[in-house]
Recover the amino acids of this structure.
């Protein structure tokens, strides 16, 4: 073929190389960021808690502690606060809270519960009705901070409804027999969750509420009208 | 003190609709801009219509400005938006330049 | 699969088998979508029999699988055209088709009849992995990977032996990336943040990077085939599109890392790169229109018949350019900035965008490929649109757009009430769900879903009978 003044801009190979370079560069950047992120979101352990180190994804043993979701002055948004608040929205890692009657779960026990709960969440497909960390389906409430939902608290209706005295027992009871405790016409079905799986799931939910989600969902449970407790259907 | 500092400032209830509308218009105006530029270059429209194209680009900028203000952007987002708008300005021209070059090369 | 087939190559025939299964799965997707939509309005419908989660899981899995089928089918279909030879190892290719189809059938039956399992690894291996879009159990994952590797070997050997075109180079490298990413979806971890981090590698890097590039390559092929565009130019564009799509899409992944436990720097990265993602989509749209207009102009100039040689495929191709821009570009951009996304994350807005984007970017062009296969099968020179072709495109597009609008209104209401005003609790969620705007939007979604389904029936009818249209030129 006779090539007159040919410009690189119309050269196929030039664009092919550009595509390869751009893709390679973007991929490398992504891989580098992934390494950094992996470091930051790897799960902590009890030692971190003992040393008062706040992890984005804390140890499974947070189930031994009280959890809140408060405004953090430095971060400029709400963060999970574990074991008490220092007044500025930082975790004190002091105040314990009983979880199914105990607050001394060892690392191993806590890990096992979380493992069971995570497996159950996948085996029962929670994510195809609910959102977890905001991802999933939009048929039922977001579970990111479900542990902190006022409906489960002392002033909420769920403990009385399920006849239990603690949040975790109420949740476990609900998860096993959701059809028995309907609060809306749109009910959660019975998924054959066993008592053990229910405990694992509640541990999973409590742990998820301690993940630092950069302030999502905003104002969870803080807005008065939002906690006018479950009216009926 | 006027309450805590939010890094993701709260959006006023009445601002949501304008935010969603302006965000959509950014791209819709952008498509008009790119579309008209292409049609002019293809000589399907008179050169005069280039004014209309740039007018749409200005509308696009306005919507972007409006959006970035309404969501209380930090400097970074503002810069990202400026880059995006500049890219929009250039892209149809670059496209067309490349089309002509490649046609010169392969069609003759 | 009938005897009167005009296919010159077995590979094209295999492609049409893939298309047939794709259409069946598309139908299943719509039916289960209707079930899920009904459950939004009448929650007792099939409660404890076929729960919403199951209906939805099949809806979106059928979606992903039919699109993968249609993409694989497209590659088998265009392979001989591009390389000039029969696909190497076509017998293995056919065997793999049956293996894959059997596996998909078993997975669907298990989803329908067994649904959920106990909290053990065995459930993950045999019943479901419970991760949205890629719920298929692990045995099936491995099966899929094996089949895809076989398919890649088919393609690779053929491309090496025959003519090597730019389109084939892009498709081949893209398919390798696409298959590799799937591995990230098989990973189990107790750490939900880590889980979601890798899960998005599959979902986002599929739909906003590798699948989009696949669309670019198919559009390039279709432009050459049905509009008569020049290969060198189309391929140059393809490379530019690859650069832009990967350049923005790979790091655009950041827009899913705002709130899942990942560090704040993803706010900036996600905002910047995902704001650039619509640019290549505008480019692709203009490219299709430009080539179409230009070739038409050339034909006009030389007094030829200006209609394209496959009208239905061309209409679907143009709606792809437009739909991709609208569903992925406009609807994607408006919730992609973190300031906005903190309110819209995980609301009906996301569903609106999901429907419009999957339909606009992928369903449209894959349907165009179906029409090209019909044209090839019956050896028709000029395939003209029938009444059913027009009804199909009108009703399906109108229906999906209607669903998108209804869901957008629902999302707006949900953002205002559940998120901005009430703080996203359990109660806030239901206050928003029970508002009139939401419940009416759900009614409209169902109505528009039915419209879509009627359009689909026309599409099936048309694909089966269009070859008999007397207006076709043979
Ligand atoms: C063809 C291309 C695309 C397809 C098929 C697509 C599809 C989807 C789907 C299905 C989801 C929901 C995922 C889930 O279930 O959680 C989603 C989420 C999202 N998409 Fe896209 N998308 C595309 C392109 C884009 C583009 C170009 C942008 C931005 C400019 C974008 C922005 C987003 C954002 C921000 C979310 C997260 C929504 C949330 O926070 O809930 N998408 N996309
Ligand atoms: C008969 C028509 C259809 C109906 C009634 C329907 C209904 C539904 C329903 C009820 C959901 C669950 C949403 C939720 O979790 O709240 C859903 C999800 C979804 N559908 Fe459809 N659908 C239809 C057609 C389609 C089509 C044609 C596509 C794409 C080509 C599609 C793609 C999706 C996607 C990607 C999701 C997941 C969205 C997300 O997670 O954000 N659907 N659909
Ligand atoms: Fe994305």
């Amino acid at each position: 073929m006779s090539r007159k003044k040919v410009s690189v801009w119309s050269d196929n190979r030039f664009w092919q190389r550009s595509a390869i370079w751009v893709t390679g560069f973007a991929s490398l950047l992504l891989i580098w960021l992934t390494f950094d992120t992996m470091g930051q979101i790897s799960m902590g352990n009890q030692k971190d808690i003992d040393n008062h180190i706040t992890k984005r994804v804390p140890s499974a043993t947070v189930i031994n502690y009280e959890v809140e979701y408060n405004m953090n002055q430095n971060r400029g948004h709400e963060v999970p606060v574990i074991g008490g608040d220092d007044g500025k929205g930082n975790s004190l890692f002091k105040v314990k809270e009983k979880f199914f009657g105990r607050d001394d779960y060892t690392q191993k026990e806590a890990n096992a519960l979380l493992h069971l709960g995570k497996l159950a969440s996948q085996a029962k497909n929670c994510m195809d009705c609910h959102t977890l960390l905001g991802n999933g389906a939009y048929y039922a409430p977001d579970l990111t901070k479900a542990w902190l939902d006022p409906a489960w608290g002392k002033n909420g209706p769920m403990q009385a409804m399920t006849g239990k005295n603690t949040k975790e027992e109420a949740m476990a009871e609900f998860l096993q027999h959701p059809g028995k405790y309907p609060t809306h016409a749109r009910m959660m079905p019975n998924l054959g969750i066993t008592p053990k799986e229910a405990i694992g799931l509640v541990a999973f939910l409590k742990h998820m509420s301690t993940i630092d989600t950069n302030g999502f969902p905003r104002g969870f449970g803080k807005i008065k009208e939002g906690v006018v407790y479950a009216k009926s259907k | 003190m006027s309450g805590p500092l939010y890094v993701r400032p709260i959006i006023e209830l009445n601002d949501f609709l304008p935010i969603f509308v302006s965000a959509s218009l950014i791209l819709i105006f952008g498509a008009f801009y790119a579309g008209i530029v292409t049609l002019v270059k293809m000589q399907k429209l008179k050169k005069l219509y280039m004014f209309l194209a740039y007018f749409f680009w200005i509308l696009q900028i306005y919507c972007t400005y409006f959006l970035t203000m309404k969501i209380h952007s930090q400097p970074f987002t503002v810069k990202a938006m400026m880059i995006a708008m500049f890219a929009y300005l250039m892209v149809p021209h670059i496209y067309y330049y490349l089309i002509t070059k490649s046609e010169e090369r392969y069609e003759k | 699969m009938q005897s009167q087939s005009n296919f010159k190559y077995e590979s094209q025939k295999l492609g049409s088998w893939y298309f047939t299964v794709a259409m069946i799965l598309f139908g299943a997707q719509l039916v289960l979508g209707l079930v899920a939509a009904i459950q939004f309005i009448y929650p007792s419908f099939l409660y404890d029999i076929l729960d919403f989660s199951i209906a939805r899981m099949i809806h979106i899995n059928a979606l992903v699988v039919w699109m993968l089928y249609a993409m694989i089918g497209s590659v088998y279909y265009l392979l001989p055209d591009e390389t000039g030879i029969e696909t190497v190892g076509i017998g293995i290719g056919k065997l793999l088709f049956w293996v894959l189809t059997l596996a998909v059938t078993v997975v669907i039956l298990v989803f329908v009849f067994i649904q959920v399992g106990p909290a053990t690894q065995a459930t993950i291996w045999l019943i479901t992995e419970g991760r949205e879009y890629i719920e298929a159990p692990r045995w099936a994952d491995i099966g899929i990977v094996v089949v895809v590797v076989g398919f890649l070997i088919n393609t690779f050997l053929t491309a090496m032996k025959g003519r090597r075109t730019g389109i084939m180079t892009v498709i081949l490298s893209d398919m390798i990336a696409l298959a590799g990413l799937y591995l990230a979806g098989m990973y189990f971890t107790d750490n939900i943040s880590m889980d979601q981090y890798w899960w998005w590698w599959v979902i986002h890097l599929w739909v906003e990077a590798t699948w989009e590039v696949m669309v670019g390559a198919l559009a390039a092929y279709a432009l050459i085939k049905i509009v008569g565009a020049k290969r060198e130019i189309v391929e140059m564009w393809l490379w530019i599109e690859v650069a832009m799509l990967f350049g923005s899409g790979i790091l655009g992944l950041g827009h899913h890392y705002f709130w899942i436990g990942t560090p704040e720097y993803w706010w900036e990265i996600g905002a910047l790169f995902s704001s650039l993602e619509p640019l290549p989509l505008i480019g692709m749209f203009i490219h299709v229109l430009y080539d179409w207009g230009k070739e038409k102009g050339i034909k006009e100039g030389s007094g030829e018949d200006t209609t394209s040689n496959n009208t239905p495929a061309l209409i679907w191709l143009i709606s792809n350019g437009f739909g991709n821009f609208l569903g992925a570009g406009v609807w994607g951009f408006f919730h992609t900035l973190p300031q906005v996304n903190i309110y819209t994350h995980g609301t009906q807005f996301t569903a609106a965008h999901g429907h419009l984007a999957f339909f606009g970017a992928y369903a449209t062009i894959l349907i165009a490929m179906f029409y090209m296969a019909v044209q090839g099968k019956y050896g028709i020179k000029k395939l003209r649109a029938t009444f059913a072709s027009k009804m199909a495109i009108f009703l399906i597009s109108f229906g999906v757009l209607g669903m998108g609008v209804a869901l957008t209104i629902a999302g707006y209401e949900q953002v205002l009430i559940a998120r901005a005003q009430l703080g996203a609790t359990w109660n806030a969620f239901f206050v928003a769900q029970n508002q009139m705007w939401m419940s009416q939007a759900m009614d409209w979604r169902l109505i528009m879903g039915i419209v879509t389904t009627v359009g689909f029936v026309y599409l099936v009818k048309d694909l089966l009978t269009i070859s008999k249209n007397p207006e076709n030129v043979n």
Residues 1-163 of chain C form one domain.
